[in-house]
Every structure is written in C-alpha cells, then in structure tokens.
C-alpha cells in the first residue's frame, strides 16, 4: 500500500491509500511476487531483496485522527503536580525520532487549556471580595485592611502543602481561592467592631485592641469548627483521595495562619491604614459637617 493524498472528512484529515488486489496480498509468497521500482527505476520482484517470517503482532490497531496510536495513562508521583508530570512527558516525547507525535486528551487536555488561567482566577476572586466590601462599608480604607490579611492565609496554605510534600496542582488552587474568603471573614469580625468603637470616639489604637480582644473567642471558635470539619478531607483514602487531601491540607494551613496571625496583624493593619489615610471617625465627620453648615 502507498499513501498518495489526504482529504478533509467531517472535520478530520483522512488518508488516501492505494494497495494491490486482495488476491495478490493474501500470503507472504504472493506479496513477494509484487513488483516494486529499485534505485534505477526498474521494476523487480519484492522477493529479490526481501525475505519474510512470522512475528507476533497486535491484536488490535488503534488510531487517533486517522494515525496509528496508543494511549498512555498514569498518575503523577507523590509530591509531583500533574503539570510537572505533563511537562516531563512532553520533554521525553520531544527526544523521540521524527514522525512520532502526541496529543493530550480527557482531563489532561482540559488542564492544558486552563493552565494559564490560575493567576486570572486569583485576581478575579480578590477583586470581587474587595468590591463587595467596598460596597458594604462605602469606603476604600476598611476593605483594604481586610484584604491585607489574605496573603497571610495564602502563605499558610503554601507552607502546609509544601511541608507534607504535596504538589501545587489544580486542587490546591481551589483551596487557595477558598482561603481568600475565609481569611477575609475573620478579619471582618475584628474590623467591623473596631470601626464601631472608632465611630463612638475611641482612638484607633484602643478601638483595634478592644475589637481584637472581644472578637478573639468567636474567631477561634468558628475557625476551629471549620478546621475540624475539613480534617476528614486530609485523611481521605480511596478513589479521589489525592484531590481531597490537597484541598483539605491547603485550607487547614491557611485557616491556621489567618486565625493565629490574623488576631495580631489585623489590628495593626487597621491602625496603620487609617492613620496613613488620616481619616476622621464617622461621628466626628458628621459633627464637623454640622458645624460647617451652622457657620
């Protein structure tokens, strides 16, 4: 048989192959009688320079997009992300002889398409949370205080996953996005109460310290309840256990850092940001406006 052309069929490229009649290729002896051109262009029997013998061959020949192919399936080694495993496979395939190619299918194909979207998703999550807080407090300063604790939670997630040797895969990124909301939730408990005390006339320092002291127990209790609820994910076994452990470990690490460090850092951020912006308490601002209107 010989390939003479290609043509498009239903969105796929198909080969056009010509071959001898069935009666002329049924046995090895009949194949050896076929005439083929030699280097000088003269037709000679194939048996003049070729011999045949029987070998064990594949029972079934699989094809992909019309080309002979075989499927390779596997899982990444412990501590190696799927992205790193795919990159290593691509490196190995690039060293194979010319004419051998590869295509990703299934989940690997979808991961390759979405590989560049992680940074955009993190940025979008941060932006959405920040804008919601801006709309809630009608201020840019208070949401900024809340968002400053998010990197602390993210750092805890990274350290927890690295400590147990887990990869930075798509499941870990899902847990990282979750930490953005959870870390902001803890900070809101302190900032909301500190803002109320500040509006009542307390100094920034006193308002922040009182809010941290009074909100410490609610923050610890809610965070501890959430962490205990996530523990089964870190202890998961069986099918899909790797993804559950990646999410659970990252979320627990982020919650621990956002909780333990948040009760200390959030008051500092509150005083620092509002002092830097030199804002007046809401009650004092109203009084100033009233005095200005009376004049």
TrEMBL record:
Pfam families: ACR_tran
Transmembrane segments: 118-137, 144-164, 170-193, 214-235, 247-274
PANTHER family given in the database record: EFFLUX PUMP MEMBRANE TRANSPORTER, PTHR32063
Gene Ontology MF terms: xenobiotic transmembrane transporter activity
Cellular component, GO annotation: plasma membrane
Organism (species): Pseudomonas syringae pv. pisi str. 1704B
InterPro entries hit by this protein: AcrB_DN_DC_subdom (IPR027463), Acrflvin-R (IPR001036)
Keywords tagged on the record: Membrane, Transmembrane, Transmembrane helix
Identification of the protein by name: Hydrophobe/amphiphile efflux-1 HAE1
Lineage top rank: taxon: Bacteria
Annotated Gene3D superfamilies: Multidrug efflux transporter AcrB pore domain (3.30.70.1440), Multidrug efflux transporter AcrB TolC docking domain, DN and DC subdomains (3.30.2090.10), Multidrug efflux transporter AcrB transmembrane domain (1.20.1640.10)
């Amino acid at each position: 048989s010989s390939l003479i052309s290609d043509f498009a069929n239903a969105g796929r490229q198909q080969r056009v192959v010509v071959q001898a009649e069935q009666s002329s290729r049924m046995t090895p002896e009949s194949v050896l009688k076929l005439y083929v051109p030699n280097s000088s262009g003269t037709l000679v029997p194939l048996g003049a320079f070729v011999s045949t013998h029987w070998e064990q061959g594949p029972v079934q020949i699989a094809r992909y997009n019309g080309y002979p192919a075989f499927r390779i399936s596997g899982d990444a080694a412990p501590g190696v992300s799927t992205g790193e495993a795919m990159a290593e496979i691509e490196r190995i395939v690039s060293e194979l002889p010319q004419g051998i190619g590869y295509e990703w299918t299934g989940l690997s194909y979808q991961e390759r398409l979405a590989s560049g979207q992680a940074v955009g998703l993190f940025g979008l999550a941060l932006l959405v949370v920040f804008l919601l807080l801006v709309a809630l407090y009608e201020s840019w300063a208070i949401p900024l205080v809340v968002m400053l604790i998010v990197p602390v939670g993210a750092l805890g997630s990274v350290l927890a996953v690295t400590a147990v040797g887990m990869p930075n895969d798509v499941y870990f990124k899902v847990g990282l996005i979750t930490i953005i909301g959870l870390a902001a939730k803890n900070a809101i408990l302190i900032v909301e109460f500190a803002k109320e005390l500040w509006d009542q006339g307390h100094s920034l320092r006193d308002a922040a310290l009182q809010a941290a002291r009074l909100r410490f127990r609610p923050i610890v209790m809610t965070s501890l309840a959430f962490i205990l609820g996530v523990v089964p994910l870190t202890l998961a076994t069986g099918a899909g256990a790797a993804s559950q452990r990646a999410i659970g470990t990252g979320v627990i690490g982020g919650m621990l850092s956002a909780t333990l460090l948040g009760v200390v850092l959030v008051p500092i951020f509150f005083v620092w940001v509002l002092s830097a912006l030199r804002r007046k308490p809401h009650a004092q601002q109203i009084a100033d406006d009233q005095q200005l209107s009376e004049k």
